Amino acid sequence: MSSAPSLLKTFQKAYQNTDLTPLTDPQDLAKFGVEYGRNSLEELEQLIADNASQAAKIVFSGHRGCGKSTLLAALGRQLSDRYFVSVFSIADTIEMSDVNHVNILFAIAVNMMLEAEKQQIEISQAIKDSFYKWFAKRTKIETEKLSAELSGGFNFWSWLVGKLSAESSVRKEIRQEFENNISDLVAKLNEIAAVIQSGSNKKVIVIVDDLDKLELSVVKLVFQNHIKALFLPGFNIIYTIPITSLWNAPIRAFLETESDDQIVVMPVSKLSPKEERRNSHPNYYEATVENLCQVLNRRIPSELLPAEITRAIVLASGGVLRELIRISNRCCRICLREIRRHPDRNDIKISAEILEQAINSIRLDFEVTLGKIDYEILVTTYKNFSPDDPKAQAFLDLLQGLHILEYRNSDIWYDVHPIVIDLLQRKGLIDGNS
Question: Is residue 283 in a domain?
Answer without folding.
Answer: yes
